[in-house]
Design a protein that fits this description.
The complex is a heterodimer of chains A (468) and B (274). Chain A has 468 residues and is an alpha+beta fold. Helices cover 33% and strands 36% of the residues of chain A. In chain A, helix 3 packs across helix 4, helix 8 packs across helix 11 and helix 9 packs antiparallel against helix 10. The longest helix of chain A has 26 residues. Classes of the chains: A alpha+beta (468), B mainly alpha (274).
Chain lengths: 468, 274
């Protein structure tokens, strides 16, 4: 049964079906909204609009199709097919033997060229053919036991018959990397305010994203964001984001300061830290509700693409019934001595009733009802992504294998030319066949060129006929 | 420097237009000498196009891959370059210029008339993988166009009982079929490298190889369809009209992935493809 399964998985039409199914899954992923691109609220709306359809889609796991059971099962089948194919390719390459050479003449498809030569001995013809083929960088294969004496087999780029195997091996390594990442990769995202220290515990990540197997991203050190800055081009387009981070490790004598930028991650303690493109400002407010214990809170606002546009946000003030609507200007221009001060246009709501509406500059205090609100501080926050995983070296390896396979297949393709000469009543005839790789017939026009060279080399007077 | 850049682009367009005229004349009136003249003019046009790209590169401080004009210009450059190299190795492919050159100068002209603005390199573009990813994507488009044209001409030529002189002068269908397969194979290989390089670049920038976003999905679909085509050609020996039709479908997918999907979706690729 195992043997039948192996044969089934490597049948070309089965592989075609696998690929078509994969394409179908991808198309479904394009058409049906996916959970990694839409918020839970979006799906609630969808469910309210059409509950039956949504239930069907949800039951079939189509909203997260690329981590669904059918998709993973399909990937597993393709993985098995690739493994078996690679194994059989490997076996065949090691087994290249006389039997393949002997059967070459019958295996070949395509055109054969025949030319007719007169007044030459077999030895002379053979020597001339050798000179033509050597000029074309072909190597004569030693005659195998049982190979007819009037046949010559030339090859070029012998090692390149491994090209297809190496290419598919690269894809296999890539698939392994994807499976490894799916199951084992650990990733976390955190919004870190300047001066804040992050303790490496899983619960502290804003957006943890771990593989399918259990495992949390924790590490025995802390890191603190010392400073974050954004660099702009002259036309105010974002140029680079830099975070200066301090790693505080109990096992090290001194903390280590490093800088993270976009596309320049750093590695520490087996974890790679990336600079996210998400950043913004954290506004700190303190509200005294009259009991003498002010409540201090941060509101984090995301930066928009244009640095001159204000940052907006809306959130509840903790331990109160107030909703804050903020429109923050990192530097407000006033026609007064408040130039280039951070300021916020603030609307405070209780239910739907506006409690306060106005501008508040950094350090200012306002009163609304019995409450006193102070705009305490503005600091930048930076998005830091941490990943623990070892997929990158595997991807580099697969990239190298794919490129190598490609070079072997296309730049140095394995070529075989089979030449047989035979005599009829008076004249010798030469038959030439060739192939590139295992199945592709040699280009007819190239064969004619070789045949022409042989003819021009050996023939003094000749008759020529080509049979197609 | 701006006026030098635009002048060089317009000079290259003039040479491409002249080459197109000679190609059309040579094909319809069977003048082989004019075909060679068309090739020479194409090379001259490519030279000025290269100078224009270099001047713009020096002016903006980055390669031709950010805004839509730069993207089109560099893609067209690659297409013309691959076409001319193909003609050098396979002289009977020169006839493809009757389609390639007019499309080239029209697209460049449209891009110039759209008043191309300078964009600066965003933070995620400070890596070598950008060059690998974009270079091989452009090579893919270049080779896919040649394969597509061979397939189209095959379908045209394979129509029986035609008295059209132009169609009769096209190379033999067997040759067209062979070249279509070979160029499609190259396109598949370049696309593979481009996708893997893109994944490595994404990992360096965002810490993840693959996010299943629309552009990534469509590029994977295109790659799989190319893979199906290659396997069908190899294992089922399909050739002729069916192979040509499948190649046309592969080309439509590439165009959709690179030029249509960015219009309808908002992804990290959207700004830089169009």
């Amino acid at each position: 049964m195992l043997h039948s399964l192996k044969r089934l998985l490597t049948r070309p039409n089965v592989i075609m079906w696998f690929m078509c199914l994969f394409v179908s899954f991808c198309l479904l992923g394009v058409i049906i909204p996916q959970t990694n691109f839409h918020s839970p609220g979006y799906f609630k709306l969808l469910a309210n609009r059409n509950p039956i359809l949504f239930n069907i889609i949800d039951t079939l796991q189509l909203t997260h199709i690329f981590t669904s059971i059918p998709f993973i099962f399909l990937v597993f089948l393709m993985y098995m097919a690739l493994v078996i194919t690679l194994r059989s390719q490997l076996k065949r390459q090691f087994r290249i033997s006389y039997s393949q050479k002997r059967n070459m003449a019958s295996e070949l498809e395509g055109k054969e060229n025949i030319c007719q030569i007169i007044n030459m001995s077999a030895a002379t013809i053979q020597n001339k053919i050798q000179s033509v083929m050597v000029r074309r960088h072909f190597t004569l294969c030693p005659k195998s036991i049982g190979q007819p004496l009037n046949t010559l087999l030339y090859t070029k780029y012998q090692k390149s018959r491994w090209g297809s195997f190496v290419f598919h091996l690269g894809l296999f390594v890539l698939l392994n990397t994807a499976i490894y990442a799916l199951f084992f990769n650990q990733r976390g995202f955190v919004q870190l305010i300047e001066g804040e220290t992050f303790i490496g515990r899983d619960a502290n990540w804003l957006v943890p994203s771990n593989g399918l197997l259990p495992g949390n991203l924790t590490f025995p050190f802390n890191f603190r964001l010392n400073k974050f800055c954004v660099h702009y081009w002259d036309n105010d387009q974002e140029k680079q984001l830099n975070s200066q981070v301090l790693f505080i490790d109990q096992s090290e004598k001194h903390p280590l300061e490093r800088e993270i930028s976009v596309s320049s991650p750093i590695e520490y303690g087996g974890v790679t830290f990336y600079q996210s493109q998400d950043f913004g400002y954290a506004l700190t407010f303190a509200m005294d509700t009259g009991d003498g214990n002010p409540i201090v809170t941060h509101f984090t606002l995301n930066a928009v693409g244009d640095k001159h546009k204000p940052l907006t946000g809306k959130s509840d003030f903790p331990e109160s019934n107030f909703i804050f609507k903020l429109k923050f200007h990192p530097d407000i221009y006033y026609p007064s001595f408040f130039l280039k001060q951070p300021g916020v246009e603030l609307t405070i709501l209780k239910g739907n009733i506006i409690q306060y509406e106005g501008r508040l500059l950094l350090g200012q205090t306002i009163q609304f009802g019995n409450n006193v609100l102070t705009f305490l501080d503005v600091r930048s926050w930076s998005g830091i992504i941490a990943i623990r995983g070892y997929a990158l070296p595997l991807v580099y390896c697969s990239f190298f294998l794919v490129i190598s396979g490609i070079l072997l297949i296309y730049i140095f393709p394995f070529q075989q030319i089979y030449i047989r000469f035979f005599k009829d009543d008076t004249d010798y005839h030469i038959m030439i066949k060739g192939r590139i790789g295992q199945r592709t017939a040699y280009n007819h026009f190239e064969l004619r060129q070789i045949e022409k060279e042989i003819r021009d080399t050996v023939v003094l007077t000749e008759k020529y006929s080509a049979t197609i | 420097m701006l006026q030098y850049e635009f002048s060089l682009f317009w000079v290259s367009i003039i040479f491409y237009v002249a080459a197109s005229i000679f190609f059309t004349y040579a094909v319809f009136f069977h003048k082989k000498g004019k075909l060679d003249l068309g090739i020479t003019l194409s090379w001259v046009g490519l030279f000025f196009h290269s100078l224009a790209v270099i001047v713009r590169w020096l002016r903006v401080g980055h390669g031709p891959y950010l805004d839509s004009f730069e993207s089109i210009s560099s893609t067209i450059w690659m297409v013309i370059f691959i076409y001319l190299m193909t003609c050098y190795r396979k002289p009977h492919m020169k006839f493809i210029g009757i389609v390639t050159l007019p499309v080239a100068f029209l697209l460049i002209g449209l891009g110039l008339l759209a008043n191309p603005q300078i964009q600066n390199l965003p933070s995620t573009f400070h890596t070598l993988w950008l060059i690998v990813h974009i270079l091989f994507a452009k090579l893919t488009v270049g080779t896919a166009i040649i394969a597509f044209l061979c397939s189209v001409f095959y379908l045209v030529k394979a129509k029986k009982e035609t008295t059209n002189n132009f169609i009769q002068r096209l190379p033999a269908p067997v040759r067209l079929d062979t070249y279509s397969f070979q160029f499609c194979g190259m396109a598949f290989v370049f696309w593979t490298i481009s996708v893997i390089a893109g994944a490595i670049w994404a990992h360096k920038s965002w810490g993840r190889f693959w996010a299943w976003d629309p552009i990534e999905l469509w590029s994977l679909i295109t790659w799989l369809v190319f893979g199906i085509y290659m396997h069908l050609r190899r294992f089922y020996m399909i050739k002729g009209r069916r192979a040509a039709a499948l190649m046309v479908m592969c080309f439509i997918l590439i165009v959709a992935t690179l030029f249509l999907v960015p219009f309808f979706t908002k992804t990290v690729h959207t700004e830089y493809l169009l």
